[in-house]
Amino acid sequence: MDLGLKGRNAAITGSSRGIGNAIANALAAEGCNLALSGRDRGNLDKAVGAVAAHGVKAVGIACDLATSSGCEAFVDGAVGGLGGIDILVNNVGGMIPGTLESLTDEMWQQALNSNLMGYVWTTRYAVPHLKKSRAGRILMVSGVTGKQLLPGALTTTLPNAAIIGFCKLMAADLGPSGITVNNICPGFTNTESWGPRAEAMAKVRGTTADGVRKAVSDQTMLGRWAEPEEIGATAAFLVSEKNAYMTGTTVEVCGGFTKYL
Known about the structure:
By secondary structure, the protein is α/β, with parallel strands linked by helices.
């Protein structure tokens, strides 16, 4: 299916690897030009090269998206490098496992800035440019911990739940401008970041990393983790012209991990 993304310009935060990189490659395969972000220049350059191999324009902006100035620099770099943006995908963040007693003020500040405020700041700077597009799209990537209880995930549960609310608010504000705003909740996905993350969660739970991974698989209806490409395919549809009437919606791509009605 042609998603109508050829020639569109997309800016994706946290896209040098993992789910963000899978989304970037899914959009590039549809002919979308990409602005990628990351903190490690080496990983970022490799990601840009892989995306450009699809025959699209790709630029990489190294920045710290846990700061307002870093988010502004990313948007400015994306607009300057691509000549404008039609699509924004907010995807930066990560879990700092811990309990109410063990998480320090500094840990909370880091988690909230990268997992929530980075979305707010980047969206704020991108909206004036998206309003110039004939098909503006914003996609948040929040994760199932904002919908489903997961012990030891305080630092993602609170920001992810807030992102769902932020998505609804922005969809209402930007609807009159023809900009759709949606949120995707990936389930547990086979990305490299889950190696150390599973180890950290295992310490909190008093088990092993393999035990954590198996416990997750056992809780899904499909009995397995997601592959990054599966998340990328859903994201590509949500920001495409084929999705013209879905906005303010949270879509779970979790293999049946969540089991509420």
